[in-house]
Amino acid sequence: xxxxxxxxxxxxxxxxxxxxxxxxxxxxxxxxxxxxxxxxxxxxxxxxxxxxxxxxxxxxxxxxxxxxxxxxxxxxxxxxxxxxxxxxxxxxxxxxxxxxxxxxxxxxxxxxxxxxxxxxxxxxxxxxxxxxxxxxxxxxxxxxxxxxxxxxxxxxxxxxxxxxxxxxxxxxxxxxxxxxxxxxxxxxxxxxxxxxxxxxxxxxxxxxxxxxxxxxxxxxxxxxxxxxxxxxxxxxxxxxxxxxxxxxxxxxxxxxxxxxxxxxxxxxxxxxxxxxxxxxxxxxxxxxxxxxxxxxxxxxxxxxxxxxxxxxxxxxxxxxxxxxxxxxxxxxxxxxxxxxxxxxxxxxxxxxxxxxxxxxxxxxxxxxxxxxxxxxxxxxxxxxxxxxxxxxxxxxxx
Amino acid sequence: xxxxxxxxxxxxxxxxxxxxxxxxxxxxxxxxxxxxxxxxxxxxxxxxxxxxxxxxxxxxxxxxxxxxxxxxxxxxxxxxxxxxxxxxxxxxxxxxxxxxxxxxxxxxxxxxxxxxxxxxxxxxxxxxxxxxxxxxxxxxxxxxxxxxxxxxxxxxxxxxxxxxxxxxxxxxxxxxxxxxxxxxxxxxxxxxxxxxxxxxxxxxxxxxxxxxxxxxxxxxxxxxxxxxxxxxxxxxxxxxxxxxxxxxxxxxxxxxxxxxxxxxxxxxxxxxxxxxxxxxxxxxxxxxxxxxxxxxxxxxxxxxxxxxxxxxxxxxxxxxxxxxxxxxxxxxxxxxxxxxxxxxxxxxxxxxxxxxxxxxxxxxxxxxxxxxxxxxxxxxxxxxxxxxxxxxxxxxxxxxxxxxxxxxxxxxxxxxxxxxxxxxxxxxxxxxxxxxxxxxxxxxxxxxxxxxxxxxxxxxxxxxxxxxxxxxxxxxxxxxxxxxxxxxxxxxxxxxxxxxxxxxxxxxxxxxxxxxxxxxxxxxxxxxxxxxxxxxxxxxxxx
Lengths: 398, 543
Hints:
The structure holds two protein chains of two kinds.
Chain A: H1 2-25, E1 40-45, E2 50-55, E3 61-66, E4 73-78, E5 84-89, E6 94-99, E7 105-110, E8 118-120, E9 126-131, E10 136-141, E11 146-151, E12 157-162, E13 168-173, E14 178-183, E15 188-194, H2 206-209, E16 216-221, E17 228-232, E18 237-242, E19 247-253, E20 262-263, E21 269-274, E22 279-284, E23 289-295, E24 300-306, E25 309-314, E26 319-324, E27 329-335, E28 342-347, E29 353-358, E30 363-368, E31 373-377, E32 384-388
Chain B: H1 2-23, E1 25-33, E2 43-48, E3 68-72, E4 78-84, E5 87-94, E6 101-107, E7 112-118, H2 130-133, H3 138-158, E8 161-162, E9 166-176, E10 182-183, E11 191-201, E12 205-206, H4 207-221, E13 224-240, E14 249-265, E15 268-280, E16 305-316, E17 321-328, E18 364-371, E19 377-385, E20 397-407, E21 415-424, E22 432-441, E23 446-457, E24 460-472, E25 482-491, E26 497-510, E27 513-525, E28 529-542
């Protein structure tokens, strides 16, 4: 009887081991260039028309996916499940889908005119590609890898943000003063939320208000997902939006021509770089009031947070301005180079290092947030326009 | 106990076997191109979809590698997955030179046989031959080419673009050896040199982008010209004092500044300000200790153009240190209070624009050095000629030094605090002066300011202080309007006194046009006592 029992147990173990080995043997046999997508920095090279993948540990380019001449990719992002890397080819009017492990280009999908910024639903199912010059968002199903719909009715949609539950998405319209609310189940525009009133004196200044509109870049969501904050560049305000009722809760006046809000990782503050007066406004999210307005640089394109500091990128001056987020005071200025143009940066998941695209030097600048020292990794591709790290809290584009 | 375990093991085995027999199935398929041609060696991947309720953002280390199975199609394009458990799957099929095919399938008890059609992957500019290598027939290559051309026409129709390759010149570092051979990497005996080289990129630009770039480049090279024209109309009514003092008078002063700015070299720029004033300010008739119209300080000769400033500025040490040299007004660079330092948009009384103990009213040749490491502290030092009639600079040196600090005290928004010292070796009563200045925001909308200064005169000190409050972005008619109330007091060692109060409201009508209403009251006690109330209107155009 005891022998029978042993035989049975051995049989079960053999079955389990056999099944496991069978599964292992039939795993994807393609060449895996990036075994762990969290360990690479993705670099979107606008003018060499490729996505480069830099290993974070070795700082070497481990792979590169060429998209085609004159594609001019704008923003790169990895799907939350780590399976795909996607980008919009601004001058090709197409979306490009790359296998995140093999780095092979697996699908090219025609979208609308001038695709730039994009977003994924939290479950990785929907890829929303914004087309600012087509005034639409292309909806791509990441299961079938097909474009299933185009959402019309937007006005220069620049950035999209999904709620954490994936039920709705909020679109910043740079060509208007309202935020679009998208029903993600039907992929339809549900509502328009006007962020603030245009001042009465606007009619005295037709050159400014009728010549060119600089509206809403992005509605940025709080860490708890409870509220969204959207800047309006022309109106110089930040609007706090309650997504439960889709209404504006509060309007906070900040500096001149705020570009967009950037949330600190601890959720206490947001920063708006104000290119109109070369300042930053630090908004306390507990009180929804401006806690400090500090001097900054020209043509600011991004803000990253790391090591208790905020790093503000001044694109054309070649400087990164640093601020202590505890004292809310300036903490120095880093000169990255002379006659260079800086673009945007991502922060690693440990909040220790920044990876800043230095377009005119074809380089990525790695900044140690604690010591404020940096090194340049050259020849990452032509005109690196942005960087992306999976699960980073500072993944953004211009 | 042993029997129980045995029974459990047998039950598990039977359950597993029966489950496999009942639920597992086969998924097979055949891969072909649009024309039906077989595609060999395609890679098919079957990925199980997570059951409902699975967390939507699984952590990366647990990604579904174990939930995938892959099979390679044979020469006939066929592939098979056996022993597939019932459930929902995504079937991907990849082949070199083709787009990935992706479809969701539901596996039940029945075997499934699928037909998978792949579409060629067109990558303009990529190396040719991928499709040919995959064994695609010539006809299909031709069809693919037609499709590619159709796609290009669509692109061109959708937007007018300049598709020719763009070139740009870049500064590069190379290594040059003794034979003038250039190397990209360091080699023995070669020296590192900087040179410039053209780079070609494949970037499409819209015509608008191209025009904007050209205009921006032209503007960068040009001399920038700015104009600031202001008209200040004030009335004056005597409130106290001898009837000999004028009363119920109207005054007007028009000022026009022409600014010229140009970039000369790396971090080096030129600036000039030519000013002309015309009119009669109240300061000609009302003998107050301080100027009631701050513009009067600029009035040198009526209806004449005067070169007010002309200087060069250059920056060193990572642009932390700036040096400005030329004809300038040194007091412009010191005590720059955020709420009370600009007669064009804030208070118009000079007592609320400048610290009266700075003690300089004429522009002259000078130098200013400002060191700003952008870490909350900053330092300034400078000197200028204080007497335009002096025969040598050394006989008329007016010098200033200042330490500034940006703070956020008591959880308040930012404030700026300054301490300055001045010295004048010219033929003046006061050789030394010292002062402090602060501007502190109490909230995002309300800020307070304060100044104190004293200057030494033989045997005593003249003293001055001012304070006030400024409002912006709240309690205003239009969002960008500002208003403020200020008070300044002078007490000279000679016994003369002055109390000055002012309120202003500044309408920002457009970015280039402002309209302000001012109301001042000044009370002086000199040889006699007099007081005036001065309402005023200031219209400023700046562009």
